[in-house]
Amino acid sequence: MPVPRPNEGTRWRCTMCGNLTRFDVTRSSRVVEYVHLDLAGEPRVEEREVLSEEIESVRCRWCNAVDQVELVDRPGAQV
Fold first, then answer.
1. Are 48 and 41 in contact (CB under 8 A)?
2. Predicted local distance difference test score (pLDDT) of residue 4
3. Which of 10, 11, 51, 63 gives 20 to 30 Å between its CA and that of 43?
4. Distance CA 5, CA 54 (A)
5. Is there a contact between 45 and 35 (Cβ–Cβ < 8 Å)?
6. Following DSSP, what letter does each residue of the chain receive, concatenated?
7. How far is CA 24 from CA 1, 33, 34, 51, 60, in A?
8. pLDDT recorded at residue 79
9. Between 79 and 75, where is the model more confident?
10. CB contact set of 55 (below 8 Å; sequence gap of 6+)
């Protein structure tokens, strides 16, 4: 089950401990990247286009709860 993504007016909050700031996020993405190799062969991504992305799970760094996040309003957000 995908986890809801925060936006400019919302943020995540752990329902177990109240954490608002520290999460481990596992996501799947499909991207197109323009990779530039220097003369030594070292790659550097110069452009990246995200075609699709899904958040698979979110784990709280404080209490280790998995997928126990909810979306709450950000302070000062225009609703």
1. no
2. 85
3. 51
4. 9
5. yes
6. -PPPPP-TTEEEEETTT---S-EEEEEEEEEEEEEEE-TT--EEEEEEEEEEEEEEEEEETTT--BS-EEEEEPTT---
7. 16, 24, 27, 22, 6
8. 58
9. 75
10. 2, 3, 4, 5, 25, 26, 27
- Which is higher by pLDDT, 72 or 79? 72
The predicted-structure confidence for 20-73, as pLDDT tens digits, reads as follows 999 999 999 999 999 999 999 999 999 999 999 999 999 999 999 998 999 999
Q: Largest Cα–Cα distance of the chain, in whole Å? A: 51
C-alpha dist (Å) from residue 73 to 9, 10, 24, 27: 6, 4, 20, 23
Q: What does the block give as tokens for 44? A: 């550097």
* Residue carrying the six token digits 């993405």: 29
